[in-house]
Amino acid sequence: FKDTEAEILSQFDNIDKSLDGWLIKSENYQALNTILPKFKEKVQTIYIDPPFNLDSSDRFLYHTNYKDANWATLLENRLKLAKEWLNEKGSIFVRCDYNGNWIVRPIMDEIFGKENFRNEIIVKRGASKAGLFTQFEGINSMAVSYDNFYWYSKNESLRFRPFLKEAREEQKIKGKWTGFDKGEAYDRPTMRYEILGVSIDKGQWKWSKERAHKAVENYKKYLDGFADKYTLEEYWEITGRELEFIRKNDNGKIQYWVEPREFVYVDNNWLDITGYSSSTGFQTENSEYPLKRIIETLTDKNDLVLDFFLGSGTTTAVAHKLGRKWLGVEMGEHFYTVVLPRMKKVLAYDKSGISKEVKEYQGGGFFKYYELEQ
Q1: What is the pTM of this model?
Q2: Is the predicted pLDDT of residue 61 greater than 70, yes or no?
Q3: N- to C-terminal Cα distance for the chain?
Q4: Could you give the CA distance from residue 264 to residue 257 in angstroms, rounded to a whole number?
């Protein structure tokens, strides 16, 4: 075995540069401190799902029943260190629920700055347990169906690619008409002009005057010579999928045409994807789908992703499948029974989670794992 190991290692001029990732069994404050010199300002995205601030630890593999002040201190100390790991274009996501969101937000504001707050995102927990209430005559509260993600950036001036999700089948094949007026919440006088005999004195139109008038002419041309031969979708296809259209509908409202699309924009409501999964048997296993949405959007190939509350290993599994570098820290004994077997399975090609949606992922890879003594 030693001869084989030496032969494999000899193929790499710099083994650390060839690695896809690092797994570290350690108390995470110690790990973040110890390894900081190697990774300072090199991480593109951090995602953590710290143990929630609950009343009881009975159902979990680690302590969750911290006092509020202790839980806040646990997070604050680690988040201060985490900020030093992020590069200047980096982002961090912290997952929590209603027990801790009121603590997480002010800590993040203090460490990363209120100006770097990006969004509070809600993500579905999983199957609703509302049906359980049918056995009772009354309830004292409603079922909780979502958790919170808090997204902060390292730098206020950063701009990001939009978050996207696959469009519904009908959106892929058929366009739709929607209002061209952006509403009174927007107010740019230079974006108010007459169009098809309609003027507005408040708010603004969506596009510049020149662009809008061109879209009006495009639609007139379609009606005059092609509407009896083609649907608008067909006409848009044969003219190169680039034309824009504006009309006045039967109610006198100005509308623009939204073309068929493969993907649509995502806002901060992520209830379309579940937040938990059960492929490993770990009590609070994160689903791969929210992590895919985060990592795919905010990182590029070979960027470094960090999770220092790794849990069942979802963050590192998704990062690997998407071709990103990764680093995960976990202190529980499930490091050996859950995380390590899962990442070995990812190298051997894991069919679960997002695997079938990521065509580039075919298994393979190379990582190290360590245990830091206390």
Answers
A1: 0.84
A2: no
A3: 30
A4: 15
